[in-house]
Amino acid sequence: MREPTDSAKTVRALAELRQEHRDLDAAIARLVADPTADELAIKRLKKRKLQIKDAVSRLESSLIPDLDA
């Protein structure tokens, strides 16, 4: 069996991060709609969502080839 390439691993990691981002978005929406929700929990989820967004951006950038040639 072949070892996946770095770009294949990156694409897979991107897909997983994007799914987690969507899941967090849905969880945040549910919590925001609940008047008894814990504000600290919402802030933590939003912070995690932002961290994931940054990670997605970094991974997407790593897939773009350098054109400094």
3D structure, described in words:
Helix 1 packs antiparallel against helix 2 (39-63). The chain has one domain. The longest helix is centred in the N-terminal third of the chain and has 28 residues, at 6-33. By secondary structure, the chain is an all-alpha fold. It has two helices and no strands. The protein is 77% helix and 0% strand. The protein has helices at 6-33, 39-63.
Describe the secondary structure blueprint for this structure:
Layout: H1 6-33, H2 39-63
Helix pairs in contact: 1-2
* Structural domain tally: 1
Rg over alpha carbons: 16 Å
Structural category is: mainly alpha
Contiguous helical run count:
2
Overall pLDDT metric? 90
Indicate the percent of residues in helices: over 70%
Strand content: under 5%
In whole angstroms, the N-to-C terminal distance is 34 Å
Shape: elongated
Main β-sheet description: none
Low-confidence stretches: none
Return the string of H and E elements.
HH
Q: What is the number of strand segments?
A: 0
Short description:
The chain has 69 residues and is mainly α.
Features:
69 residues; mainly alpha; 2 helices; 77% helix
